[in-house]
Amino acid sequence: MYNYTKDYDCIIVGAGHAGCEAALACSRMGIKTLLLTISIDSIALMPCNPAIGGLAKGHLVKEIDALGGEMAKVTDKTGIQFKILNKSRGPAVQSPRAQSDKLEYRLEMTRILENQEGLDIKQGIVEEIMVSGKKIKGVRTNIGTVYKSKTVIICTGTFLNGLIHIGLTSFPAGRMVEFPSVGLSQSLSRLGLRLGRLKTGTNPRLDSKSIDFSKTIPQYGDIPPVPFSYFTKKLPQAQVPCFLTYTNKNTHKIILSNLKRSPLYSGKIKGIGPRYCPSIEDKVVRFRDKERHQIFLEPEGRETSEIYANGISTSLPYDVQLKFLRTIDGLENAEIIRPGYAIEYDFVYPDQIKLNLETKSIEGLFLAGQINGTSGYEEAAAQGLMAGINAVLKIKKDKPFILDRSEAYIGVLIDDLVTKGISEPYRMFTSRAEYRLVLRIDNTDQRLMGYGYKFGLISEKNYKIFEKKLKNVAKFKEELLKFDIKKCNITDKPENVTLLQYLKRPEVSLKHILEKIDPKSINLDKYNSDIINQVEIQIKYEGYINRQLWQIDKFKTLENKLIPGNFDYSKITSFCREAKELLMKIRPISIGQASRITGVTPADIDVLMIHLKKNQKCST
Questions:
Q1: What is the pLDDT of residues 219-278, one digit of tens each?
Q2: DSSP string over 101-164
Q3: Are 208 and 306 in contact (CB under 8 A)?
């Protein structure tokens, strides 16, 4: 065994999307950081869909950006198609998505990491978490090198005991042709952490030269494209189209007749798969009434012929994959470059971590990403950023950074994991956020950029730009409030309404009004589209937003009723056994969090509040 001569403040294990954000946050906040990865050539790899964002996931990426993370900026530099989803619906559920160049994304993120001051990157397979008592000490690799550190963040993705399935053939791997991490899984178990088994899958990659795109429907990006990051001025690169086709009855017939060769239906796969991203086998079996399913043919990059066949994740044998693909319009002569596969992997039940993502049993050990039971690049990156920030705060003996459910989708994500636990791979949806009217993509900077600036992840220059924007939003709104609508050349407006009242009509847009205003009345050159959009949302949805803010005030009341960390639930005899066990396991920090634990009833909360009041009186 060799003790490496340099000690670190934080070691990050794994260089996927969680590991990249964690490593950058730690080093940028000024601590000595080591990023350990099984393969340097796979940093920030997109093993599944080469896309960032989507419904609710785009919210997470905007929040990462506002806090000073990197995912949005790299997406803007390497994206090949940009879209705002749900544009026809309200602003609360609109979300950005970008198709990325898979290779360029990885190379750009690697370049940023390699040039980051205070960050070392090394290749190695971590076999053991080193502890002293119940406190982190460092890690040991498979070649016997020991790296010492004050904190460790585990971001292993699908590598813990990874097992790939293609048909009835299985082999150990973290991703296709990459080693799994077996020793680390055993080490976590020896430390007393409860591990479970999950499953996910990916789609076959096709050769674009073998596809007849004339039989498919082109899918274009937005014009003009809207950047992800607040710090991207414009997206000058040309966009690349995707293409839509469908499965059919013949496709489904082939799949159904080969289920006995599916590891999912033969019982070979034991892990639980994602309900909201099912394989094509699952879709055909569970939705037999559907005559077809969508397939989006998405380029993996500008300079590659690989096409990601989004919508047909599968673990069927290679020959069956080829056979059913060739029944689909445009894919009659399709050639598979990489087959689809399923992968099973270990995860740690997230009720064993705190809201700052530190494990409850081992001080200084943090977990982020799929190891906590999530799915998706965006969920992983958000956790990585939060774990990185909190590891630094832990070292500096500062208060943990915890976002609540009313502040950010990140807060919803982590609270759901820690408080409610998971029974399948967790995916973020707008429906999970009860305060989504105020957690919009247009106001992410207003909600979170102050935190990023406080932690040194947002520069002084960028924060001043943000402050200037806030002033312009307030100024523009003030000008509109004072403006007399009679000065507008609008023929369809009712009599005796103010400009604000008129704007609140669903069919009226601020752009329509501004086109009718004399340019001399309001200098519109001072206000860009971002400011105009923000003011329109504030005015048009004022009543709904105010009602949500009232709900948040009520929510905060319970969140502010803190529960002492050493509170003894076992002494409360009026609790039912289930509630007592759940509260002792989760150890909620507030009445609000306790009320969200599945299995804890409103009656249990009433009893808990009575006992907390008694304890307060006794202590005074």
A1: 999 999 999 999 998 898 889 999 999 999 999 999 999 999 999 888 888 888 888 788
A2: -HHHHHHHHHHHHHT-TTEEEEE--EEEEEEETTEEEEEEETTSEEEEEEEEEE--TT-BT-EE
A3: yes
Write the DSSP string, 558-614.
HHTSB--TT--GGG-TTS-HHHHHHHHHH--SBHHHHHTSTT--HHHHHHHHHHHHH
Q: What is the pLDDT of residue 507?
A: 82
* 178 closest CA partner among 58, 39, 310: 39
**pLDDT band at residue 506 under the 50/70/90 scheme:** confident
Q: Domains, the chain, ranges and CATH?
A: 2-199+345-454 (3.50.50.60), 205-344 (2.40.30.260), 460-548 (1.10.10.1800), 561-619 (1.10.150.570)
Residues in Cβ contact with 57 at an 8 Å cutoff, skipping those fewer than 6 apart: 95, 97, 376, 378, 379, 428
Enumerate residues 6+ apart whose C-beta is below 8 A from 294: 244, 246, 311
- Give CA separation, 208 vs 297, 310, 335, 532, 580, in Å: 9, 14, 8, 42, 58
Segment 615-619 mean pLDDT: 64
Give the whole-angstrom CA distance, residue 333 versus residue 212.
8
359's tokens: 């494990």
Angle between helices 542-559 and 529-540 (to 10 degrees): 80
First to last CA, the chain: 54
Residues 6+ apart with CB under 8 A from 463: 449, 453
Task: Give the mean model confidence (pLDDT) for residues 290-304.
Answer: 96
For the chain, count helices (H), then strands (E): 19, 21
CA distances to 114, 207, 440, 485 from 106, rounded to whole Å, are: 12, 21, 28, 52
Q: What is the DSSP string of 160-180?
A: BT-EEEETTEEEE-SBTTB--
